[in-house]
Every structure is written in C-alpha cells, then in structure tokens.
C-alpha cells in the first residue's frame, strides 16, 4: 500500500510540474521583458573614445555580448551593431604602440583580436580620420578591418538617423 502511495505521489508531482509548465506565463530570457517589449531588432552604434586598453577590454566584452545575447538573437530580425572610434580610442586600433607601456601590449593585442572577431561577426567598424590627425596617429597603421570616415560624429549621427541607439563609451 505504501508503495502505491509513493508512486501516486510521484505521478502527481510530474503532472503538477507539467501543468505548471503549460499554464505559467513565459519568462523572458535574460530579464529584458521590459526593455525589449515590442522590439523587433536591436540596432546600436557604440561611440567609442575610451583609450585605456584594460578598460576597453572589459567594456568590449559587454559590447560583444549585446549582439551575442540569446534574447537579442531571438528577436524577429538579427542585431545590427556599429562601432565608431575617435579620441584616444584610435590609438588602440593602431599597430603603433608608442605612448603605451610595455605592460599594456598584451591588453592591446587582446583588444585588437576582439575587434577582428567582431568584424567577422558582421559588426561595422569605423575610425574617424579627423581624430587620427588630432591624436597624431598615422592612418596607415590602423587595423585593415576598420573603415575610415572623415568625421566620426557624422557617422554616429547617420546611424542614429537610421534608428540605431547611440551608446557612448567615454
């Protein structure tokens, strides 16, 4: 008798779990149910001026996560991400390491590898030629994965006019 009671309890628990699974409201993955309510696609342009290699690596982990996130990828249209480099950030995407300490080189290499992977992932990458001039960076030293634009602010404005959200990375 006790054996049938245990089997009945297990069956009841399985049935309850099944029923709860069907009747429970869906939970948005990642907890973005408010932020992404009604959103069909994530479009973001990152306005990048941060010049610290270590800080930039930490930030770019999060930037990469924006378009790799399962919830974002689950929207009806794939994410579109652009990054516009200007200010001190232009030094991070250059093969010229002058002005950096040797202990920064590994962080710069890591950052540049992240940029290469982002390009392969379809991220649009642009550098402001005006910023290169102001920062004294030779345009020929910029990673080949990055497109040159005359004025990065015009690019940011253009992306915003196309519906991209602007995210400043000071």
Radius of gyration: 23 Å
Structural class: alpha/beta
State which percent range the strand residues make up. Answer: 5-15%
Question: In the CATH hierarchy, what is the architecture at level 2?
Answer: 3-Layer(aba) Sandwich
First and last CA, distance: 71 Å
CATH topology: the name is Hypothetical Protein Ychn, Chain: A
Count of DSSP-assigned helices: 6
Mean pLDDT: 88
The succession of helices and strands, N to C, reads HEHHEHEHEHE
Key attributes of the depicted protein:
single chain, 170 residues, Hypothetical Protein Ychn, Chain: A, five-stranded parallel sheet, 6 helices
Describe the structure concisely for a colleague.
The chain is α/β, with parallel strands linked by helices and 170 residues long.
Task: Explain what the structure shows.
It is a single chain. This protein has helices at 2-23, 53-68, 70-73, 105-120, 129-135, 152-161, and strands at residues 43-48, 80-85, 124-128, 147-149, 165-169. It has 170 residues and is of the alpha/beta class. The protein has one domain (36-169): DsrEFH-like (Hypothetical Protein Ychn, Chain: A, 3-Layer(aba) Sandwich). It has a five-stranded parallel beta sheet with strand order 4-3-2-1-5, with helices on both faces. Helix 2 (53-68) packs parallel to helix 4 (105-120). The radius of gyration is 23 Å and the shape is globular. Mean pLDDT is 88; it is low at 10-28.
């Amino acid at each position: 008798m006790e054996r049938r009671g245990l089997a009945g309890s297990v069956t009841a628990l399985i049935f309850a779990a099944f029923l709860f699974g069907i009747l429970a409201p869906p939970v948005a993955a990642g907890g973005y149910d408010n932020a992404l309510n009604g959103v069909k696609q994530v479009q973001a342009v990152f306005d990048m001026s941060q010049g610290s290699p270590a800080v930039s690596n930490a930030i770019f982990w999060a930037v990469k996560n924006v378009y790799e996130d399962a919830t974002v990828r689950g929207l009806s249209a794939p994410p579109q991400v652009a990054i516009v480099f200007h200010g001190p950030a232009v030094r991070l995407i250059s093969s010229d390491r002058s002005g950096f300490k040797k202990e920064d080189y590994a962080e710069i290499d890591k950052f540049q590898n992240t940029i290469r992977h982002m390009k392969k992932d379809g991220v649009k990458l642009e550098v402001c030629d005006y910023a290169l001039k102001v920062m004294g960076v030779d345009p020929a030293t910029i990673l080949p994965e990055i497109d040159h634009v005359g004025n990065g602010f015009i690019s940011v404005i253009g992306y915003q006019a196309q519906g991209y959200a602007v995210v400043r990375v000071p």
